[in-house]
Amino acid sequence: MTxxxxxxxxxxxxxxxxxxxxxxxxYESTKFPKKRMVILTCMDTRLLELLPKSMxxxxxxxxxxKNAGALVSHPFxxxxxxxxxxxxxxxxxxxxxxxxxxxxxxxLKSDQMIESMKERGISEETLETLSYSGIDFEKWLHGFxxxxxxxxxxxxxIKNHPLMPSGVPVHGLVIDPATGKLDVxxxxxxx
Length: 191
Hints:
Layout lengths: L6 H14 L16 E6 L4 H8 L7 E6 L10 H11 L5 E7 L9 H10 L4 H9 L4 H4 L6 H13 L10 E6 L6 E5 L5
Parallel strand pairs: 1-2, 1-3, 3-4
Antiparallel strand pairs: 4-5
């Protein structure tokens, strides 16, 4: 029987060697961020290593929350809950919202995504049922037009959240995914 190499198999084979060779030891840390900060950023693949390197961050320095577009789309959703947990339970004293240029969310159109869903087997009946149940696909799947304005919006939601303690600086930045250059949109110390 020939073993088919799948992405999962490839990862598990690598992981076996990683653990066996004790390579994990160089990443040992605690659950508390050494630099006492939490970052909300985009899930873009270009930022995986670039963002921490551009900020001189290492394993264990920060708590990181990622989603599409670095957006706080609901004040009581999982993103905001994660930020509050980082602040109250994991000793983060500052919040950084970091969006990026050339973000896929800036081009996201709900109608195109719905067509992609249909092409991959989501039925019109399912979409109608969800729409009837109150899901506004136009709003839920809508991106943004301006990354700086989007970052500023997320900063405002976090800063003004009724459960966010006063005095926690909430910064907004935009990173260039080609160079790593950071531009400040909101200086949380002056806000």
